[in-house]
Specification:
three-stranded antiparallel sheet, alpha+beta, 2 helices
Amino acid sequence: IVKIAPNPDAENEAVQAKREKEEKTAADRRIEITTDIVAVATALQAIILIITVCVMIRTASQQLRAYISLAGDKPFVIETNNGLRVILKIKNVGKTPAFKLDHWVGTDILPFPLSQALPTGNLTNRNLYLPPGESMQLICEWPTKAYRQNNLLNWDGIGEGALRFYIWGEVRYQDAFHKTRYVKFRFTHRAHTESDLDYCEEGNEAN
């Protein structure tokens, strides 16, 4: 009987080859994980960059856009022989021009508080240009002389059956970033008062 003893060198080579294979597999796995981490980090950096740019653009548009304010230009209300004349002032308080500026205005003597929806008017299609810091006037007139002379209206705005003179409307314009903006307004005026124009709780908004 011939007994063949195992070759120590062959066993060592097998063990070494197995170890090298395991080490190579582990190294390849580490490379894959590292590559995945780098890819995720790159994607996150790209997303953060996009978000940062969007925030910067939005901040710039908010800081540099046109802002239209609308209020009474003293004297707000002038009583004439024919009725009431209301002077409103549109002003660009922003840092860039307002383009394609247009408006509509409604006036009426109505119950206070309102018991009906106010109608919407039509734009004038004037497409005006208003530089920053500049203003323009809107003049509205309402013939109230006949009502006052006949003493038919209680439009002091107090008590049962009270009425008020309403001025409402909308200003639309385009800012330097080509976005359409609007300012909706609603005021009232009480007869024989020093308050001139009062802001309504509803009907005043802007974007």
